[in-house]
Amino acid sequence: MNRPTILQLAPMSSDLEAALAARGEVARTPSEAWLAEHAADVTAIVTGGGTGAPRELVERLPNLRLIAINGVGYDKVDVAHAAARGVTVTNTPGVLTDDVADLAVGLVIGLQRNLVGADRHVRDGQWPKGELPLARKVTGLRFGIVGLGRIGRAIADRLKVFGPVAYTGRTKKDVDLPFHPDAASLAAASDVLIVAVSASAETRHLIDAVVLKALGPGGVLVNVARGSVVDEAALVAAIDSRQIAGAALDVFADEPHVPQPLVDSNRTLLTPHIASATVETRAAMAALVLDNLDAFLAGRPLPTPIPPP
Ligand code: NAP
Question: Is residue 72 part of a domain?
Answer without folding.
Answer: yes
